[in-house]
C-alpha cells in the first residue's frame, strides 16, 4: 500500500464495463480507485452516465451480501479484485459448472491477456499464488501428470484407512472441549475445527507436533493474501518456501511412512515425477486446500445445524445420514468463497456476457452453490427428490483430489460433536469473517453445552 492506504493499481487498465450491461465502446471512461468505499467508480467524462464494477473487499463484514450484490448483475458479473485487477465473477451455478467442465476454459495464467500485456503490477500480492506450478494453475498433460503423482495418496481405500486415526483425534479434541466448556463458552473453530485437519494433514506429511502451529499460521496468512501488502505477500512466500524446503530435506535424509516420502520416491522430473519446485508447490497446495477449507466447512456446517434445529434433529434421529448433512452444509455455506482465475481460450458468450479470449474469470463457489435459479437456497438436509449438485469441491478435471479425505473428516467430526453434545447451543453470533476472498468462514464460533 502507499501512504494513503491504497493498493497499487495495475499499470494499464481495461476499459470499464457497466455493472449490469455490456461495455459501450463509444464512451471512454477513466477508472478511479477509492479505498474508502466498496466499489470501483468508472466516471464517464463524455456526457454519459456513471458505470460501476463491484469491488471485492476481503475485509467485508458480510461476504454473503457481497455475493448477492454480484448476483444482482447477473450470473457473470463485472468485478475488481484488490490491486486494480478487473475480472468477471462467475456466480451462476450453471455458468460455473460450464467453466469447470468445458475445455474452452483454461487455468494456466499464460492465457491471461492482462498479464501477457503487462497490465498487472509485478508486486500484485496474488501473482505468486497464480504462478506456482501446481494443479490449480495447470492444464492438459501437465495437469494430468501432477494429479497422477498424488492420486495414490487419496484413493478411497487409503483414505478410509485413516478412519481410526481421525476418530481418535476427534475424541481427544472433544475431551478437551468438554473440559474447557466447564469454564464457559468455547470457540468451536479454535478448539475443534482447526486442530482436526491440521493434525490429519501434518500426520499425513510427517510434520512433528511441535512444528504444526507454525504451519497453521502460514496457511491462515496465505488464505488472507488478498488483504496483504505486496511486501507482506513476498515475505510470506519466502517463509512458506523455507518451511517446505526444510521438510523435504528432512524426509530426504530420513524417509518415513508419509506423503512427502511417497512423493520423493515417485521419481524426478526427468522420469515423469515432480521437479523440486513442483514438489514444494504440491505440498503447499495440500496444506492450504486441505486445512483451512476443511476447518471452515466444519464451522459453517455446525453453525447451520445449530440455527436449524429441525435439521439437526433429523440427523441425530437417523432420518438423514451424516454424509447428506456434509453435502448440504458445503452447498449452503461453502468454506471456499472464490478462486482466481480461469480464462476462456477463445471469444465466447457466458451467462449473457460476451467474453474475450484471455479474460480473467473468478470462480465464485459460495455464490454459485446458493444460486436460486438452480434450486432451493434454504438449508435442508432431507430434501425430497434430486439434490442440488454442490460445487464446493469443483467439477471436471480439477475436481478436488482431497475431497474423500475432507468428507471423511467432516462426517466423523460432525456426527461425534452432536452425538456427544446433543444440547450444544450458540453462545453468541459468529465472529466476523476471516479477511479473505478465498476462504469463507467466521473467525470464531462460540458454543456452550
UniProtKB/TrEMBL annotation:
Record keywords, A-Z: Heme, Iron, Metal-binding, Monooxygenase, Oxidoreductase
Record-stated family: Belongs to the cytochrome P450 family.
SUPFAM superfamilies associated with the record: Cytochrome P450
Single GO molecular function: heme binding
Short name of any one Pfam family annotated for the protein: p450
Protein name: Cytochrome P450
Region (Disordered): 1-27
Naturally occurring in which organism (per UniProt): Streptomyces ficellus
Source species taxonomy: Bacteria, Bacillati, Actinomycetota, Actinomycetes, Kitasatosporales
Coiled coil (residue ranges): none
